[in-house]
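Handout, section 3.2

Students often ask what a structure token actually looks like in practice. Rather than define it abstractly, here is a full record for protein-serine/threonine phosphatase. The first block is the sequence as you would receive it.
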Amino acid sequence: MCAVAPSTTPMTPVFSSPKLPSLLCKSSSSSSSSSSSPRSLSAPINLHVSASPSPSSSSVSHLDTLLKRKRPSRIHLPQSMPSIGFGIFDTPEIMEEEGEGYSVFSKRGRRRISAMEDRFSVTLGIQADSRQAFFGVFDGHGGAKVAEIAAKRLSENVIDQVWRRTESEVEEAIKDGYLRTDREVSEEGVSGGGACCVTALIRNGNLAVSNVGDCRAVLSRKGRAEALTSDHMAGREDERNRIEKSGGYVDFCGGGWRVQGTLAVSRAIGDEHLKQWVISEPETRVMKIEDDCHFLILASDGLWDKVTNQEAVDMVEAVCGVEIAKKKPINPKLIMSACKQLVTLSTSRGSLDDTTVMIIKLN
């Protein structure tokens, strides 16, 4: 059974609630190689210089003047400079949330001059049952707007669909919840940007994990890492075939495979301009929570680009494995410490991306 916190209300949603004062903006350009469009480069300057073996001093002087004229002066960008064109928003560098049986920590990537695009949501006490809950991590690209909407709407839409269906129809219900959220993003007129998602629904002793994009869910079975999701990347053979059959193409540019030469992920919520090929239908895995299922890690690619599945599980086990293995509540601050250490590990290995890590005790 899942050791998630009982709720004083029938259903208590929590949305990426910041606990630090805000210094930065909220929406920005895309955050990672899996979500950003390649930056177009201007053509290099061609300088036609005479082939004379001994150029005159006046020619050298003229060339120096040209080079200096073409090279702009260095511009200093303050760390908290807002994103031009998006306005000033109130998302801080760090967001975190603790609850009995789970913790989540988000940190803004170092490459940004705007605010982080990651979001998360937690809904506890579904139908007044503390053992039923919904968790989600959302990684925005091309701005935070879609991730913001998904964090607020996806849990409601999935829960609504699931409780209308039988136990055998859970996968279809979750899919309908994702597709409905995608339609709501479009109805709100959000034409640019998108969000990758990974969610976990705990219900009746079962775990249903779903994803679109490159956010990932990793389960610890007595310390052994087991990936419950598969990243939807443009270079994945089945995804590339699906895109090409629908009239699109996948091109290698900007250091990786990209849909229509722009987006590295092949599934996401939003991305209206690519919707014919970048679909919002999730892949879902449903399993029974056994005694050997210790904890679940949901995280954005800011973690998984630098930390392997097993390394992530090993770190959590090292910090709080003994307590997690016990069938009783655990101090959420201990789980929070593991979240922060995973983010720190990713950063120390060179990650410049926004990173969100959520750890959920299962047994």
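Discussion prompt for tutorial groups: The mean pLDDT is 80. How would you have guessed this from the sequence alone?
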